[in-house]
Every structure is written in structure tokens, then in C-alpha cells.
């Protein structure tokens, strides 16, 4: 049923409960976008028109109840023979599960829960609705500790059609009132008896009457006196004990006559735990009445007539009493015979043998619950299946139609779908592409490679995956792996280098994101030489990081020029530099030892101090993007001399070199 939509509105999500009459699903109301509970009538009851009619009428009547301790009913419907009721979804557990988990509850907690239930019952009784199936299984506790009574109206509908059905009475027999066990008249006081039994269980952790068979328990409700709860749990105050014993009196006239009366005592006992609650239902047999004045002679005459007629009246009364006793005995024998035949005989009949049904395609949990009612051991083996939803039976060890003797220990094994095999997408970010592909294939996943640029992930490594890491997918799912191509190369414009010195050219190229390529003439260049040719030409667009080839004019060394002595400093020009001779170019790479300690852009200042002049020359002064490192720097070194180089990053000395 999971996934089905009822009334073009209620989408069934998962089974959350079930009983002898119905199965309950968690569902989503597509119209109001909220979770609801949908109770679906079991198929074995759908052909009983009278039952279905009562089911709908009473469910609609219950929908009129509005109370904070009553589960609200929103809708009633029928579709393709499926009869369902839509009600408030409660995220919690039943009172029965709560007692099983905690055992006997502290008496104040038990009384407070009972007050909430009794308040709900009081509201229902005002609307002339008798629940008839009050038990901890039908009380839901929210996460906030609020009690909610459910199944209002349904029990009333069920009572007339299923009173003799074993499957539907066995779950409630521990909470039956004596009149329910006898098949007698049921009224509001029957609900209060069941509530008293529920309070008894909350206080002691167990029900007052237990036996091997439902019939025996029913008879104990009729005949046996319950052991006072205070004898089981000495922490229970006397007042609470009195309320329980008064609520579970065998005779209806001795119980609480209304939910309001019981509610009043429950509130009082919280303030006065040891207050005694005595049953005050004894009626006065001799009410005061007016009597005529009788004379003495009349009195004598009446006494004589009374004596003579007394014996006749007594004889007549004795005969009537005898007949009434006989008739009463016959009625009791008939009732017990009828109950025994209706409950015991079907049990005996079904205990002899069981015919295995075809369970393939059904929900495993539902089948397990059904078979365990017949003490059949159920085992489930989970297997992956692409075509069957999770929890659906694929095969069974015993074929349909085979009969099992219920006096023996029987086991049916089922192969149950666990749905398609699911795997988690591994975390592959920054992994090398070949290792990532191997990991995905090992997980049984298929691969699609997509390359894209990345400023933060190294070339050939994984940027991300779709589906994302940690997501569960079916085996064989295609996972798209995005592989880095490194930073995207941008287009830059080549600067005009004609007429520039080597140092000026290097500074312009670095600022544009370019590098110096082939140099002509090679090896030895004069510092004042000017560039006469460049490739690519100025204003050409090229990829960032490209090299530019340059050609310098040829200038003879000072020793080859006339017009003065080299050592006199003549013909030195206006530069003030002394003894500038030929130099060679040494290439040096500046690496970042700790890239994470810098931002995306780094301020770079590089200066050189050649030994032939002793003066600082700026080789580079600019802000460079971090991914451009390592930087290639060309250092001019005098012939037969050295050059000291200082590198500053973000205004801090980074490294000193000597070449």
C-alpha cells in the first residue's frame, strides 16, 4: 500500500501500526501539505455491509468530538473497496509501549495520565458516544507527555459485528467490563471500568486478571475480585487505591456513575492522597412517608387478618423466588454456553491445522504479525532486488495451500526484498583522477568525466561529484566527476617594449602576466641597451603566462670606446654609475614555501645590488596573483663579480640571494 494515493489527496508513506480490524499508515495530505494517519479497514470486514455502514456512521460521529486529549478525525472515505479514516498524526508511542518500557509508573504520573483520558471520555459521553475499547493500546502519548485517546466510534461500530470474533476480542479481553464479557448491556460505566483497569496497570505494571485463554480472563472479570493495587505496590496512596477499586466494581451501580464523578476524585486525590473514597451508592430502603392514625380496635382486627394472610403470602413469595432462581440459572448457563461456543470452539478448530496462503508480493511485517497469531515462527532473509519495493516478500519456503499442524512447531522462511542495493558516494575532493575512478568502480558505480577550470584545485584532481559525497544511490548509478584543468588562462595584451631597457621590459611583462622569452643577442647584454624588436608585437592578445622574445641593440663595452681613460671615470654619462661593464643574465625562481599564509594577491618587490655599482636596482615592484608562483626572475650579474638580491613579499623580507 506504500506509495498509494487515496482520495487523490492522501499519499501513504509507511505502515506505523495495526490491529485485528485495521492497519494504520503514516501519510501526507497533498492538499494541506501535512502528515496525517490513515486507518484502513482490513479486507475481511469490507464485505459486511452492516459493519461498513456502522463503521462510517460512528467514525463520522467521532469526528464531531473536539478535545485536546482526543485524536481528531479529519475525513472518511472509500476507494476501490478500501474503506479508510483520516485522522490526526501523533508522533509518539502508545501507553502500552510506555508501560512496557518503564514498568510501574509513579502514582502521580499515572493519575495525571488518567485525568487526561477521563477528560476525553467525559467529552465523548456528553455526545452520547461510548468508546467500548478503552485500553493502553488505544492511548497515544506525544513527546510532550500529552495523552490522546484514539479509535473513538470505531469500537462502537465493531461491537455489534465482532463481539464473537476471536481475532478482534482477544486483544481487549484484559480490559473488558463484566457486562462486556457476559455480552450484556454496555453503557458509559463500561468505559470507566476499562479505565480503572488501565490505571491499575499503570500503577502496578500488570493487569489484574491474567490467564492462558481469553475465556478464562473473561470469566475472571465476571467472578473474581481483583487484588488491590496497594498490595502489589506499597507506594500507592490509599486514596488512589480506593479510586481504582471503585472503578472496577463488578456491579455497575457500585462504580462511578459518570466520568465527571471519577474526574473529580482524581483531581482531589492529587491534593489529598490519603483521602478515603467510600462507595456511597447504598439507597435508603425505608423513606419517610405519611401514615394514617389507626384506632386500637381497628389495629387488633388488622393484626388478626395479617396473621392469617401472612402464611399465604410467604408461600406465594417462596414459589416465585424458586422459579426466578431456576430461570436465572438457565439464562446464566445459556450465556456461558454461548460465549464458550463462540470463543472456544473457533480457537479449537483453528488450532488443529493451518492452511498456508500465497504471501508473495505482500508486506513482510503484516504477514509476520498475521502468522504469529497462530504461533508460527517467521524468518525473513533480506536480499537486494531492483524490481521489488523494500519489505515486500519475494518467495516463501512453504508453498501456498499446504496445511500445517498447529500442535507442532512450524517455521516459514521468507525471502524479503531490501530494495535496490544502495551505496554511498565516497568523498573524492582533491583526489587524483585515476584514483577517484578506481574507487567509484570498486563501489559498483559508473563514471562520467567532466573537465573544468579551477583556481584552487590542482590540474588532474577532483573538484566535486554529482551526486555529492555521502549521498546514497543505487549500484550502477552514473556519478559525474568534475576534474580540474587548473586555472583558466586569461587573454592579456602584450605591452610595447621597444626602446625599453631589460629591467624596464621585465617589469612591464610581469605586470601584464607575461614572461621574457628568447633574448638576442644571447648571454652578455649591456644594462643600458635598448630593445629594438619584440615577438609577439605590441598590443597583440596572448594567453596569460606566455613568453615574449626580445632583441637588444648592440653597444660596445667601455674599453672598446675611445675618448678617455677607463679608470678616470670620464665618459661615464649622467647616470653616476662607475665602472659599468658587461653583465650576464642569471635566471632564478622564487617559490612560495607556505602559500596558505598569503592572500589571493601578493605584493612583490625585488631589488638587485650588482657589485660593479653597489647601487640597488629594482627588478620588480608589482602585485601578483598567487597562482603565478613560482616567479621567474632574471638577475644581471657583472663579469667577474656578484649581485645581491632581496625579495620582499607583502612588504616583508622573504629571501636574500647572492649570484
Give the tags.
15 helices, 6-stranded antiparallel sheet, Transferase(Phosphotransferase), domain 1, Phosphorylase Kinase, domain 1, 30% helix, elongated, alpha+beta, 31 strands, 659 residues, 5 domains
Task: Please tell me about this protein's structure.
The protein is α+β, with helices and mostly antiparallel strands. It has 5 domains: 5-88, 2-Layer Sandwich (Phosphorylase Kinase, domain 1), CATH 3.30.200.20; 93-271, Transferase(Phosphotransferase) domain 1 (Transferase(Phosphotransferase), domain 1); 356-417, Trypsin Inhibitor V, Chain A (2-Layer Sandwich), CATH 3.30.10; 422-484, Trypsin Inhibitor V, Chain A; 491-557 and 579-658, Trypsin Inhibitor V, Chain A, CATH 3.30.10. The chain is 30% helix and 26% strand. It has 15 helices and 31 strands. Helix 3 (107-126) runs antiparallel to helix 11. The protein is elongated and about 155 Å long. The two termini are 83 Å apart. Mean pLDDT is 81; it is low at 157-171, 280-304, 306-311 and 558-579.
Architecture blueprint of SSEs:
Blueprint: E1 5-6, E2 10-18, E3 22-29, E4 34-41, H1 49-62, E5 73-79, E6 82-88, E7 92-94, H2 95-102, H3 107-126, E8 139-142, E9 147-149, H4 154-162, H5 166-169, H6 178-182, H7 188-204, H8 214-223, H9 229-232, H10 238-247, H11 259-271, H12 296-352, E10 353-355, H13 364-372, E11 377-383, E12 393-396, E13 403-405, E14 411-417, E15 422-424, H14 433-442, E16 446-452, E17 462-466, E18 472-474, E19 478-484, E20 491-493, H15 502-511, E21 515-520, E22 524-525, E23 531-535, E24 541-543, E25 547-552, E26 583-590, E27 601-610, E28 617-625, E29 631-638, E30 643-649, E31 652-658
Parallel strand pairs: 11-14, 16-19, 21-25
Antiparallel strand pairs: 1-2, 2-3, 3-4, 4-6, 5-6, 7-8, 8-9, 10-13, 12-14, 15-18, 17-19, 20-24, 22-26, 23-25, 26-29, 27-28, 27-30, 30-31
Amino acid at each position: 500500500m506504500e506509495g498509494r494515493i487515496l482520495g487523490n489527496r492522501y499519499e501513504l508513506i509507511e505502515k506505523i501500526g495495526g490491529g485485528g480490524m485495521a492497519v494504520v499508515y503514516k501519510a501526507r495530505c497533498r492538499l494541506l501539505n501535512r502528515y496525517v494517519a490513515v486507518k484502513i479497514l482490513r479486507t475481511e470486514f469490507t464485505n459486511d455491509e452492516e459493519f461498513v455502514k456502522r463503521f462510517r456512521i460512528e467514525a463520522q460521529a467521532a469526528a464531531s468530538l473536539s478535545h485536546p486529549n482526543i485524536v481528531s478525525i479529519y475525513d472518511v472515505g472509500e476507494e476501490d473497496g478500501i474503506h479508510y479514516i483520516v485522522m490526526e498524526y501523533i508522533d509518539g508511542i502508545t501507553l502500552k509501549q510506555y508501560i512496557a518500557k518503564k514498568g510501574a509508573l509513579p502514582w502521580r504520573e499515572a493519575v495525571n495520565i488518567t485525568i487526561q483520558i477521563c477528560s476525553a471520555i467525559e467529552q465523548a459521553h456528553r455526545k452520547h458516544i461510548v468508546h467500548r475499547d478503552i485500553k493502553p493500546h488505544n492511548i497515544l502519548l506525544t513527546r510532550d507527555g500529552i495523552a490522546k485517546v484514539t479509535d473513538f466510534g470505531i469500537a462502537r461500530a465493531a461491537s455489534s459485528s465482532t463481539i464473537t470474533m476471536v481475532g478482534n476480542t482477544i486483544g481487549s479481553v484484559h480490559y473488558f467490563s463484566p457486562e462486556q464479557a457476559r455480552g450484556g448491556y454496555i453503557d458509559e460505566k463500561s468505559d470507566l471500568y476499562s479505565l480503572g483497569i488501565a490505571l491499575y496497570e499503570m500503577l502496578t505494571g500488570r493487569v489484574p486478571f491474567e490467564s492462558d485463554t481469553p475465556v478464562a480472563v473473561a470469566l475472571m472479570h465476571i467472578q473474581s475480585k481483583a487484588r488491590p493495587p496497594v498490595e502489589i505496590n506499597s507506594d500507592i496512596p490509599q486514596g488512589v487505591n480506593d479510586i481504582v477499586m471503585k472503578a472496577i466494581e463488578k456491579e455497575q451501580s457500585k462504580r462511578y456513575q459518570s466520568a465527571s464523578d471519577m474526574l473529580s476524585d482524581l483531581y482531589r486525590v492529587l491534593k489529598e492522597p490519603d483521602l478515603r473514597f467510600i462507595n456511597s451508592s447504598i439507597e435508603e430502603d425505608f423513606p419517610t412517608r405519611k401514615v394514617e392514625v389507626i384506632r386500637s380496635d381497628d389495629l387488633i382486627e388488622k393484626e388478626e387478618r395479617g396473621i392469617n394472610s401472612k402464611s399465604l403470602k410467604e408461600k406465594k413469595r417462596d414459589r416465585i423466588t424458586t422459579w426466578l432462581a431456576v430461570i436465572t440459572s438457565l439464562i446464566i448457563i445459556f450465556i456461558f454456553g454461548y460465549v464458550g461456543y463462540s470463543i472456544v470452539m473457533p480457537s479449537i478448530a483453528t488450532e488443529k491445522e493451518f492452511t498456508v496462503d500465497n504471501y508473495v508480493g505482500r508486506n513482510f511485517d503484516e504477514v509476520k504479525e498475521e502468522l504469529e497469531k497462530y504461533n508460527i515462527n517467521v524468518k525473513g532473509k533480506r536480499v537486494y532486488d531492483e524490481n521489488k519495493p523494500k519489505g515486500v516478500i519475494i518467495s516463501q519456503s512453504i508453498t501456498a495451500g499446504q496445511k500445517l499442524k498447529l500442535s507442532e512447531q512450524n517455521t516459514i522462511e521468507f525471502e524479503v526484498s531490501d530494495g535496490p542495493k544502495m551505496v554511498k558516494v565516497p568523498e573524492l575532493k582533491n583526489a587524483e583522477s585515476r584514483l577517484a575512478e578506481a574507487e567509484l568502480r570498486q563501489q559498483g558505480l559508473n563514471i562520467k568525466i567532466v573537465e573544468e577550470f579551477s583556481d584552487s584545485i590542482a590540474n588532474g584532481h577532483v573538484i566535486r561529484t554529482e551526486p555529492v559525497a555521502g549521498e546514497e544511490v543505487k549500484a550502477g548509478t552514473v556519478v559525474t566527476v568534475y576534474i580540474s584543468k587548473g586555472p583558466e588562462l586569461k587573454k592579456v595584451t602584450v605591452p610595447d617594449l621597444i626602446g625599453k631597457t631589460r629591467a624596464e621590459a621585465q617589469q612591464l611583462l610581469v605586470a601584464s602576466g607575461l614572461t621574457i622569452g628568447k633574448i638576442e643577442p644571447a648571454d652578455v647584454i649591456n644594462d643600458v641597451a635598448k630593445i629594438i624588436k619584440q615577438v609577439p608585437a605590441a598590443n597583440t592578445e596572448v594567453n596569460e603566462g606566455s613568453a615574449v622574445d626580445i632583441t637588444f641593440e648592440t653597444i660596445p663595452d667601455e674599453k672598446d670606446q675611445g675618448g678617455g681613460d677607463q679608470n678616470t671615470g670620464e665618459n661615464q654619462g649622467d647616470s653616476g654609475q662607475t665602472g659599468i661593464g658587461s653583465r650576464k643574465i642569471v635566471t632564478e625562481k622564487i617559490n612560495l614555501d607556505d602559500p596558505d599564509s598569503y592572500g589571493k594577491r601578493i605584493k612583490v618587490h625585488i631589488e638587485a645590488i650588482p657589485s660593479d655599482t653597489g647601487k640597488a636596482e629594482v627588478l620588480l615592484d608589482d602585485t601578483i596573483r598567487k597562482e603565478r608562483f613560482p616567479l621567474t626572475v632574471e638577475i644581471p650579474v657583472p663579469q667577474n663579480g656578484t649581485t645581491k638580491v632581496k625579495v620582499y613579499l607583502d612588504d616583508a623580507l622573504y629571501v636574500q640571494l647572492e649570484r
